[in-house]
Amino acid sequence: MNRTVGATLRLTVGGGAIFAFGFGALASVPQPPITAATAAAAVPASSPIEHMDEPIPHQARVAVMIYVLATPEPVPAVAAAPPPVRRPMARTAARVPSSAPASASGGGNGFSYGYCTWWVAHKRYIPWRGNAAQWWWNARPFGFAEGATPRAGAVMVMGISSTSPQGHVAYVESVNPDGSFVVSEMNWWGVPGGGWNRVDYRTVTSMRGILGFIY
Questions:
Q1: What does R_g of the chain's alpha carbons equal in angstroms?
Q2: 88 located within any domain
């Protein structure tokens, strides 16, 4: 019987070769034995070579760059300055010096500025009008009481004289234990530093020329 011999050459990973022989059907004609050299020569030069176990190609490494955004450090909050504490101002009673001018000006009270009537109307409410000597009679229709005793806050009224042809009025500031009293006035020429648009303080010890007091 004849046999058909086929050989396949396989390469291994290490570079060696493996020969595989395949036998076909047996022929009835006897064949001489085939040596390895003959078999090798019988393999055509163009026999396919199958590469076994070839390594899987490695994928290219991708460089990955990770950016980390820096978080700004929190700025410490500046404490707000506390609001200033307002303290009430101490109120002190100030007296006008004898030679000082009036601290207020204008004719808002109905009388001419700089005169005795203006000053008294500046110190307290006066609803009537007229010259100083006329106040004694003009106050009565308005319901104001009158008398001969000085009181703090009262209006002292002086009549017409050679030195004061229109009379004179002053404001009683205080009454002393001995019966004398202190007045503030404007446009009084009887004391040093007095006169028009000037305020002075004097102590009255006599009732001469005084018509009375309006309360």
A1: 67
A2: no
Task: Give domain status of residue 90, yes or no.
Answer: no
Q: What is the pTM of this model?
A: 0.53
- Report whether 2 contacts 34 (CB < 8 A): no
Burial of 173 per CB tally in 10 Å (0-12, 13-18, 19+)? middle
Same domain, 120 and 46: no
Per the structure, the count of domains in the chain is: 2
Which residue is listed with tokens 């176990």? 53
In order along its 215 residues, the chain shows pLDDT tens digits of: 444 444 444 544 445 444 444 444 444 445 555 454 444 444 444 444 444 444 444 454 544 455 445 555 655 555 555 565 555 444 433 344 444 455 555 557 999 999 999 999 999 999 999 999 999 999 999 999 999 999 999 999 999 998 889 999 999 999 999 999 999 999 999 888 889 999 999 999 999 999 999 99
Domain co-membership, 120 together with 204:
yes
The domain in which residue 10 lies consists of: 5-51
Residue 205, domain member (yes or no) = yes
Q: Which of 89, 127, 96, 122 is nearest to 108 (CA)?
A: 122
Nearest-angstrom CA–CA distance, 173 and 209: 19
> Burial code of 79-114, b = ≥16 C-beta within 10 A, e = fewer?
eeeeeeeeeeeeeeeeeeeeeeebeeeeeebebebb
